[in-house]
Amino acid sequence: MNEAIRELIPKSVWNKFADLNAVPRPSKKEERVIDFMINFGTSLNLETIKDEVGNVIIRKPASKGMEDRMTITLQSHLDMVHQKNNDTEFDFDRQGIEMFVDEDWVKAKGTTLGADNGMGVAAIMALLESTDIAHPPLEALFTIDEETGMTGATGLKGGILQGKILLNLDTEEDDELDIGCAGGIDITATRQYSEKPVPRASVAYKITVNGLQGGHSGIEIHKGLGNANKIMNRVLYTVGNKYMLRISEIDGGSLRNAIPRESVSTIVLLKKQSEAFEATIEELAEIIKKELNAIEPNLNIAIEPTKLPKTVMGLGSQERLLQGIYAAHNGVYAMSATIPGLVETSNNVARVLVKDGEVKIGCLTRSSVDSAKMDLANALKSTFELAKCDVELSGTYPGWTPNPNSKILKVAENKYTALFNEKPKVAACHAGLECGILGQNYPDMDMISFGPTILGAHSPDERVSISSVQKFWKFLLSILEETPKA
Q1: Which residues contact 410 (CB under 8 A, 6 or more apart)?
Q2: Strand 138-143 to strand 72-77: parallel, antiparallel, or no bridges (unpaired)?
Q3: How far apart are CA 411 and CA 307, in angstroms?
Q4: H-helix or E-strand spanning residue 183
Q5: Element (H or E) spanning 454, and its range?
Q6: Marked catalytic residue, from 30, 79, 147, 178
Q7: CA distances from 416 to 135, 255, 411, 429 (A)
């Protein structure tokens, strides 16, 4: 299946992508891909370094005639988001990604593809291995754990990098040059609850919300995509006010940076209410599906009888949980007042787990304005504290302040216009690029971000455009040719 990928043009890039995707590389479990990258660098007899947190740096001297140019740092992250369809059997810890070609797109079979940020990694690897490409001195920076904490970028110390210009290859629209991004912070709400015996004369149901698109909780947060955790909570809150419904378990969403696609709950209620309950669920499901039909045509809300659990959540705890999640903001909170069309601040209610006497709720709040980020984070903290949760704010990272006077930006704009007969979009994005963090220890480094077109990132619908990769590669090589002199 992956052999067809290796025949795509440019072969050097696609072959490196296929090599990379054969290596399991979940966030916080990057040992194998770190070893893979170290072996790659040493096999080329290039200076290869692993820093104390696990980032890999590989340096390559300039090609002949380019020795007087500034050193370019090329940066991408090694880890990938692991998401799969609920009917896909796949072990991300052991299996390589199974890819296939569908017209102009490369896709994965029921899982995320890893084009985010594997295409950037593959392009850098192809440059390091090349023998016939003109380039200045190159410094490849492969960071770890970008997707779940940016700990690689955060842990990179000052003084290690030699480059004066950084090209981050982690943008997902091929006509866009990014010069700024949002910062973020994790909100985690937890509480213990007392488990109660299942009431007598009860029946149990499994409620399932699935069929949602999911996607990147920054780049796609403005689309109004359905959030499985919020939909499940709406269902439970609504029917809970009408019937003696008791929650046993909830398991919704997964990673903070992915809009949740699925949620499953187990509930019990009095047997005599079951017929009316089923009718109410069916009616409510149709209302919600109609509301979201334009954006989520495949939304499914279903119930089925299931085995009675041993315990349920205490009623007071259940009421606070449902009220807290209902009140927690999800989606766009504010648009930028300075950059038209840019989401300034948002939140993703990413994870809800209720099981064995413990509640855990995970959110990711993003903003290009640090004070606004903390304002929404504190609003969420207050919301969950009112629901009697303990709340931790952690993993904060800064945004990247745009520099419209960047010298490498001017080079890139001119090359793009000359190559493609149109001007690129110069923008900031609502994703969490690593440039803002790297800039803290390297404040004088001139940075831009770009990449090929990738759709559906952080979901099993992730796909990368083949023609766009060709465009991206041509553009990258042209920038290297025009690197300013040192």
Answers
A1: none
A2: parallel
A3: 64
A4: strand 183-192
A5: strand 454-455
A6: 79
A7: 18, 35, 9, 19
Active site residue 278: no
Q: pLDDT tens track of the chain, all 486 residues?
A: 678 999 999 999 999 999 999 999 999 999 999 999 999 999 999 999 999 999 999 999 999 999 999 999 999 999 999 999 888 999 999 999 999 999 999 999 999 999 999 999 999 999 999 999 999 999 999 999 999 889 999 999 999 999 999 999 999 999 999 999 999 999 999 999 999 999 999 999 999 999 999 999 999 999 999 999 999 999 999 999 899 999 999 999 999 999 999 999 999 999 999 999 999 999 999 999 999 999 999 999 999 999 999 999 999 999 999 999 999 999 999 999 888 899 999 999 999 999 999 999 999 999 999 999 999 999 999 999 999 999 999 999 999 989 989 999 999 999 999 999 999 999 999 998 999 999 999 999 999 999 999 999 999 999 999 999 999 999 999 999 999 998
Sketch out the chain's domains with CATH numbers.
3-182+399-481 (3.40.630.10), 185-395 (3.30.70.360)
The pTM score is 0.85
Residue 7: count of CB within 10 angstroms of its CB? 10
In single-letter form, the type of residue at position 375 comes to: D
93 a catalytic residue: no
Cα 2–chain centre separation: 24
Q: How far apart are CA 268 and CA 196, in angstroms?
A: 12
> Which entry of 146, 172, 262, 446 is annotated as an active-site residue?
146
CB atoms within 10 A of CB 53: 15
Nearest to 386 by CA among 453, 328, 433: 328
Helix ranges (DSSP H) in 215-255:
228-240
Q: In terms of Cα–Cα distance, which of 36, 285, 290 is closest to 144?
A: 36
Residue 373, classed as helix, strand or coil, is: helix
SS3 per residue for 23-59: CCCECCCCHHHHHHHHHHHHHCCCEEEECCCCCEEEE
CB atoms < 10 A from the CB of 197, how many?
A: 9
- Measured distance CA(202)–CA(409) in Å, rounded: 65
The amino acid occupying position 59 is R
- Where are any strands of DSSP class E within 284-357? 300-306, 311-313, 331-335, 343-355
- Dist. CA 316–CA 244, nearest whole Å: 13
